[in-house]
Amino acid sequence: MTPPNLRGKALHDVLGRLPKPVTRPSNRISDYFGTNVFNEGAMRMFLTEDAYRAVRSAIDRGERIDRKLADQVASGMKEWAASKGATHYTHWFQPLNGSSAEKHDAFFEPLGDGRSIERFDGGMLVQQEPDASSFPSGGIRNTFEARGYTAWDPGSPAFLIHQTLCIPTIFVSYTGEALDFKTPLLRSIRALDEAATAVCQYFDKDVKKVIGTLGWEQEYFLVDESFYYARPDIMMSGRALFGHGPARGQQLEDHYFGSIPERTQAFMVDFETEALKLGIPVKTRHNEVAPNQFECAPVYEEMNLAVDHNMLLMDVMEKTARKHDMRVLFHEKPYAGVNGSGKHNNWSLATDTGVNLLKPARTPKENIQFLAFFVNTIAAVHAHADVLRASIASANNDHRLGANEAPPAIISVFIGEYLTELLDGLEKNIKSKMSPASKTELKLDIGRIPPVLLDNTDRNRTSPVAFTGNKFEFRAVGSSANCAAPMTVLNTIVAAQLKEFKAAVDALIAKDVKKDEAILRVIRDLITASKPVRFEGNGYGDAWKEEAAKRGLPNVVDTPRALDAWGNASTKKLFADMGVLSGKELDARHEIELHSYTLKVQIESRVCADMATNHVLPAAIHYQNRLIQNVKGLQDVLGKDADKASATQMEQIRKMSRHIAEIHALCQAMTEARKAANVIADQRAKAIAYCDNVKPFLDKIRYHSNKLELMVDDELWPLPKMRELLFTR
Ligand code: ADP
Ligand code: MG
Question: Taking the CB of the first residue and of the last residue of the chain, which one, N or C, has fewer CB atoms within 10 A?
Fold first, then answer.
């Protein structure tokens, strides 16, 4: 007897699975929230008053910590970590390969005379030089000059994982160029703070600082570990390159917000417990639209922290999933035919006086402030849609954007009916010279934004950027992405826009226009100028593509071309002016992303050819042989009557031969296309060759394989089928 194939074994495994028992430290989350974080409470307990104050002023005002105090902070941190069983420490950073990185060192140090101590001083806390020459640098570091430094980011507290003290850091080259996601994010946060605080000064002199807030919503799929191992495509590339759509997909719409399967629930409770101990304020969990798709969302936080927390959470989820015999798929489009996964980035601005600048207020005066930030954000998105698009471009996200379930690749802003009316009204009403009466009218008008707005704004799911009552939601971000990339861009373009706004208002004031009127006039101009980016209709239809083209909005559907925005002179000027990324740093990022695109498609293409040749074709030929045996048998038994009796089998045999031949030919042609692309030296041209000449083969091969899947005996088919991947839990 032949042993069952991997699929058979996987099915057997999965049917026997039970939910794993999960224990929580306490029934009340507040009892263990943040226990693995060197937070306020821990700092107060383990730091001297001086050291504590130094850290606080570093967090609040970005002030430097001197070496002596850094020693004290380090010693306090070590004591705290050791009290919780930590033996090692690491600088934790986010290099441009998309993951987080860590290299553990023991506190332990031999003294050379047989004795040893546990040591961790300020120098070790503040700066490290990891041998990190294998991280992507886009040509910034030559290998002979491969030094990269990690430097402590006091804005994000240290935390404990697996007896290791993790210190969030930035990662820069010897010459100071950013080699990570966090450095430009921090620079953009500073630029946004400066620009927004300056604008706030028109309305409230008490505002000294504006922080960006981020609340991400993390979507993901779960797949049983045994299926995962039986699907080399999912293992290697994160998505299913083969598989006929199941008879039932998501059309019954019964999964969204449905009751959470037991095994999944156990997994969720388990990773949430870990996350909560790490101070990640996860709050919401639910089923998503596609079968076996779920979402997790925290309470929003200061953006730098929120970004770290998202990276950390993804890591915790991956590790926890293994304990539950599952794998979590963060890929943007693991399965064709059902929804992909995104990571909505809810973005807003908060003042140090506790005001959400994107929340419509009760008084007319405060609403002018709201309008200023609201309209400037829309104007920024309009002016820099191409860079925003580039910030979310990836090989994975290409499968999702514009795939009739996710926002299209055309960047537009949805603000809802009420605010549309309000902006349209303002645009018409603000005369360049207003009479006192019309000014009062106008103020009253603005004053009338009702509080219910908070609840009745949209649920237009088709828009890449939507205003949702008190924040903008950037929905085009991919589920596997580091939020820092899109947030850096959004911060930077809004900062630049606010600076321009302030200059324009000040120019009017210098000409003796009253402040409020000057502000309203500039707002009016911005409303007019940015009107094309506002779209309230259905973003999925072809009609929108035509309309968007007429409006001059870019619609770049693939990553290699979307990334062109990084190289534009206007982008370089913008990022340099805002002090976020130099031309050299932008070029490096551009290069890295092109290269990463090429590698991803290359991997998919290799896995696809391997599976087609070593899994699909052998199964098909095996079954075809059975049919041939059957036909021969019928001939033996029935003689001349066999022709009629074996007609169906003969037809199947012929059809299978055609698909087999097609797959074989396509795999060969794909390999040739890959070879041709591989010799191209220019990264952009190479990525485009992969996009235009290699990628299309994947769908063609899938098509023929899917046809074979429908013919071959279910028992012989080696790959877990889509119905199994999507519906077993
Ligand atoms: P949805 O219906 O899209 O799930 P929610 O109101 O539940 O919307 O919020 C989604 C996310 O938005 C949550 O992570 C929440 O913390 C975040 N959020 C709420 N207010 C803000 C804000 N002012 N700034 C940033 N994020 C916010
Ligand atoms: Mg949302």
Answer: N
**From ligand 1's centre to the CA of 298, what distance in Å?**
8
User: Residue 231: which H helix or E strand, with range?
Assistant: none
DSSP assignment letter at 410 = B
**Residue 442 in this model has a pLDDT that exceeds 90:** no
Tokens of 373: 């930030």
The Cα–Cα gap between 75 and 111 comes to 18
Q: Where does 278-363 have alpha helices with state H?
A: 303-323
Question: Is the sign of the CA dihedral 305, 307, 310, 314 positive or negative?
Answer: negative
Residue 157 makes CB contacts below 8 A (sequence gap 6+) with: 37, 38, 39, 168, 279
pLDDT at 467: 93
Domain ranges of the chain: 33-180, 189-595, 596-727
Output the CA 472–ligand 2 centroid distance in Å: 10
Quick one: average pLDDT of 449-467?
66
Cα–Cα nearest to 566, from 341, 356, 387: 387
According to DSSP, the β-strands at 465-467 and 413-414 are: parallel
Q: Helix axis angle, 303-323 relative to 262-277, nearest 10°?
A: 140
Atom of ligand 1 nearest to the CA of 350: 23
Domain 596-727 has CATH 1.20.120.1560: yes
Identify the residues whose C-beta falls under 6 Å from ligand 1: 213-215, 217, 297-300, 346-348, 356, 470-471
Q: Does domain 189-595 have CATH number 3.30.590.10?
A: yes
Q: What is the mean pLDDT of residues 58-72?
A: 89
- Looking at all shown ligands, the one closest to residue 471's CA atom is 1
Closest-CA residue to 279 (of 36, 24, 23): 36
Q: Is the pLDDT of residue 431 over 70?
A: no
Judge whether 617 and 660 are in contact, CB under 8 Å: yes
Of all protein residues, the one whose alpha carbon is nearest to atom 11 of ligand 1 is 215
Confidence (pTM): 0.95
Confidence of residue 1 (pLDDT cuts 50, 70, 90): very low
Q: How high is the pLDDT of residue 432? A: 45
CA distance 409 to 398: 9
d(Cα 197, Cα 209) in Å, to the nearest integer? 6
pLDDT, one tens digit per residue, over 194-247 is 999 999 999 999 999 999 999 999 999 999 999 999 999 999 999 999 999 988
- Rounded CA-CA distance 602/88 in Å is 38
Kindly identify the ligand whose nearest atom is closest to the C-alpha of 469: 1
- The CATH topology of domain 33-180 is Ubiquitin-like (UB roll) (3.10.20)
Euclidean distance between the first and final Cα of the chain, in Å? 30
Cβ atoms within 10 Å, residue 194? 16
